[in-house]
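Async update (no meeting this week)

Hi team, since we skipped the sync, here's where things stand on the single-chain job. The sequence we agreed to prioritize is pasted below, unchanged from the tracker. I ran it this morning and attached the output directly underneath so nobody has to dig for it. Comments welcome in thread, and please keep replies under the output.
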Amino acid sequence: MIWIDLVKGISILWIVFFHFFNAYANDRFPWFLRGGYFSKFLSVCSPHSVFAMLQCRFESVFVLAIDFGYHAVGVFLVLSGLGLTYSLAHFVDPPSGWTGWYRDRLLRLYPMYWAAHIVYLVTPFAWDGEPIDRRFLLSLAGDRFFPAGTLFYYLNPAWWYFGLLIQLYLVFPLLFRMLQKIGPVAFLVITGLVTLTSRYLFLCVLHVDGAYVQGAFFGCRLFEFALGMVIGLHLRRDRVAFERRLFSTPVLLIGVAIYASGFLTYHSAATYTFADPMFTTGLFVIVAHFASALGRMRSIASPVARVGFYSYGLYLIHEPLVLYLGKHLRNFNLLRFTLIAWLIIPILAAISMELERMINAITEHILGRSSRREAAKPLEPGQSVS
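Output:
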């Protein structure tokens, strides 16, 4: 199923470029949610010729596509649920028991996560000087969610996703048992209701920090993870039939419609209750179709899939580096910045791959464990994860 690694690769590269671009843009371009996006973009460009007008319109669409990159994090939630469930779908319980399952998962997650903390501390040009205090120890333990106001974006904002994964891993045995007992349809209905209720309470009743809706409380993103679990179950039961349905034209059109409809949820806090489930569901279908098409171009598909397979390391270390580099490219025009960014991003990806492989090898050597594909396959941005 090469398309899964391609989905990861596309998504993590989109996320990295999104963070890179935000550091470069520094609010010089209008944000599409504030209304009148295209007219504001034209006023920024101030085109004085037909060619300049065409260039400005192309840039406005290009920037808009980049700005949608923050939605790609949800795709990794689907992939996380997919990977975990696919590996266990033929079992009542994990062969090594849930204790062994937790051990394997945490040994996959934590060593590279700890290494990323060290990389951050010893990279002075990327370090923004945020105080190293008790929050550093809480972050090392995986607590990126409480208290959300001080820990969610601490040191490296991208690490908030790690805290969400830890929460979902903790409840995964319960979710897996639910899926086995009540079936996919009822499972999606219940997890969907839990998600919408949680989001509504935080958004419209409690009015708490928005970080809780983004991922500091797992219940607000539960449906996306549960959707991945159902997909993983169906892939294990009948991969050919499921892929035939997934990659059909009607499903693509439905995915596009769901994703586009998600933008209507920005009108109020009540409608935003539906935002992340809609964006993630639609975008997963769209990116999966794009990945399937990309898979036919082997020269491109192979490196993108490789990035996807090792995307966990890139997710953990990229943000401070691209924020620093983006700030130093602000005097360049959009075209020159884009060309330079896409020269730098593959270098970062290659470095993160080597670092991830090295950390995995050290972990296996210390623990006397042989390398196993199932244990090593990334499950976040990316593991087979603004």
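Quick observations from my side:
Residues 90 and 236 are 8 Å apart (CA to CA).
Confidence is low (pLDDT under 50) at residues 370-386.
Reply here if anything looks off.
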